[in-house]
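G.,

No rush on this.
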Amino acid sequence: MRKITYDTSYNSDLIVGSLSSESKTESITDMETSNSSNVKATKKSSTANTNQKLPVICIGGANIDRKLYVKQEISTGTSNPVTSSKTIGGVARNIAENLGRLGEDVTLISVGGDDIEWKEIDLVSSPFMNLEHVAQLEHAATGSYTAVLDQHGDMKIALADMDIFDEITPELLKGNSDILKQAKCIIIDLNCPRETVDFLSHFTMEYNIPFVVIPVSSPKMDRLPSSLESVSWLIVNKDETEAFLDVTIKNMEDWKRAVKSWLELGVKNVIVTNGAEGVILGNENGNFRHYPAVDTPVVVDVTGAGDSFCAAVIHSWIQKKDIDYIIHSGLVNSHKTITSKHTVRQELSAKQIKIDMEEILNEKIS
């Protein structure tokens, strides 16, 4: 059966700045590259998982995105003229579509209503991912997310109806344990309940499966697993980092300390994004690397920017690209997404992102 879920926010802080050639001269070493998982997984955590032909599994939100574009400066307490659009969204679903367009074999695990909204999601999503493991609930509504964007394309407020995602339970995942054991990578967004995230944290450690955690908003940071030692990648923005670590990031040193704090909690690879300042990546050996963002003078729509960044980073990592390629692919895909009206840009492919990177970096990509 096919089903839906919903997602909350996208990390829209990967937007403006400049991607300098200087950043390409720095290096980071010993990044974790064990992105594999055994065809016949055993219960020994030391067992390598080496079947690269099995799917990437995305778990979390899939929903209807409604966008309201305010025509002039927003006035509170009164009516504001808008234009509107409706698209398919959800953090896990958006990441899954990006990965599918990039050529990965992707399975989505989610929940949704038995309604017309899910049928719309099915129609758009099914060419890029396996939806057989999405559970439909007869008396629940498919998730929805409504964003109000100002005349510059920046989000001013978002309204999320996502109670349905509380049904992404450990029991639901246990019913899909066979395919989970076979995954070469599992990605979860924090629309899922805390107990589900904890379940997957233990599960991925037991079966030695790379585990990627994507926060969706600051209020949901308390859904991170109780132990972060299972987390292969955490891609988190400044606000989410400040909320979870109870810190304030005012400058580069604060930013670096925050990255170090994540690593001290057990995360193997972490990216903390910070708007126009770009991103800092750190690894478990204490290495750091700052990457400026891609300059984007004209922003069409920030929706999906963070999801496109995450997907390109994970895809490039799975393909065992070097660390510069991994981060630049994310920055470039995010940049191209916000210059498009689509949440997932329609021209995306493995070939196209390479062309885009060569164009923006002004160098040949092998």
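When you get to it, here's the other one too:
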Amino acid sequence: MGKKEVNSQVYQENYYLRAFDGRLENYLKSLKSGAQDNRFKELFRLAKLEKGERVLDVGCGRGELVYFSLLKGASEAIGIDYSRPALSIANKALDILPENLKGRGNFLYQDISSLKLNGTFDCCFLTDIVEHLTKNQLYKLFSEIKKHLSTHGRIVIHTAPNINWIRFEYPLKRFLVIPSTIIKRLRGKKPYLAPANTNFLKKILSYLDLYYVRDYYSYSPHMHINEQSPASLKKLLKASNFDFKIWCEDGSSNFISVICKRFWGPDIWALARLKK
């Protein structure tokens, strides 16, 4: 039996504002400053957004991509989400845009399972949304996007974590430093919080730092119902009949990361286009 769709009630305001000390004003200040993290910089580098293009951001969250797309010259940018707290924050972001741009942005309350798009889009962002959707939702999403992608349109995808990183690279890297981990635990330099609602073996593994401990803000299992590997994302895009390129990235300089990042890098990126 497939996994159930994620209930929108899971995504509350604190989920979106935690990175800003839980304060909306801090988030808005960061937008006004023009600050973008490395992930956003890479998204726009890959998108190669040109002035006058129409942008779609699926699973728009706080609305940064819509905000920055308009500043970069998009003729229109639309964000879609089914979390009302997210859309409330995103609309506040539109309010601080220059007056001549405010009318070019819009946020829509829509569920992927009943998604209906209008018009054509030149660039579609799927940023940290794939892992939150069931396989059936993803097929529905890709099918709907295909109907509304311009002839030169592209889909920019980022999803994390690579399930291979969780299963293999994360424990392998920490296995090599178990003695150091134990010493740090005993000295109180590496605090230990036992994972809740799990068995004794996983508690031991988490003490040795061989088991990734998830919480509401860190790859929540209640939200991350469909984490990908390069192979599984390839299968999805191939079945949806796209031309595409998929690769992994790993910001760590650890020698295992450098050697294994091609398949196990925690960040999976993809560019997809309509087949010609």
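The CA atoms of residues 143 and 224 lie 22 Å apart. The chain has two domains: 8-162+223-274, 164-207.

Enjoy the weekend,
O.
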